[in-house]
Predict the structure.
Amino acid sequence: MEQLLNSAEKKILIAPSILSADFGKLNEEIATVESHADWLHLDLMDFHFVPNLTFGAPVIRRIKTGLLLDAHLMVEHPETYLEELAEIGVGSVTVHQEGNVHLHRLIARIHELGMKAAVALNPATAVESLSPILDDLDMVLVMSVNPGFGGQKFISLALDKIRWLKERRPELLVEVDGGINAETAALCREAGADVLVAGSYIFGAADRVAAIESLRK
Ligand code: DX5
Ligand code: ZN
């Protein structure tokens, strides 16, 4: 019964990705989603790990928000970013499974600095690869597009990964990122997702608040 109540009351968290916001007026853009969003998703890209370049600590430092800062590191050598992100007050750091040989050490370092630790999986990466470190994680970020750009189409390989993770460790947060709109959000929620990242769907909408709320229904 308690379980049923919990699942009925489960709140889905919405994390707008500022990748699709106007970087020329970032704080004004964030203010338009502040009251209805739960987290703020920050995509750090370095033109090496992914073929796109965004921002790093100097920009994040200037962000004015009360929302939890959810940093998604699509960069080489993510360990070199951690101390500064912690000092700025970032709440959650996601590093990729791919390309990080010392993933276990990286997770330990994120925790040591007082932040929540998550690992992201590209569409072609098997979810089972996380088995050995599942207990060390606060969250898994399931990529539903190939990382690097906003506005791409949802890849449904993500759904089985969400189900696998929630069956294996129900209390682990599962975040989904890429191609999220009202339709794909419903599929992710049904599969058990806890956090939905959306960039173009929210920042491209005429009514951003309505767009956020449509992801919860
Ligand atoms: C892509 C980023 C996403 C991106 C999602 O690499 O990780 O966070 O902003 O954009 P949409 O929601 O437009 O697919
Ligand atoms: Zn992201």
In short: The CA atoms of residues 11 and 118 lie 19 Å apart. The chain has a mean pLDDT of 96. Residues 157-168 form the longest helix (12 residues).
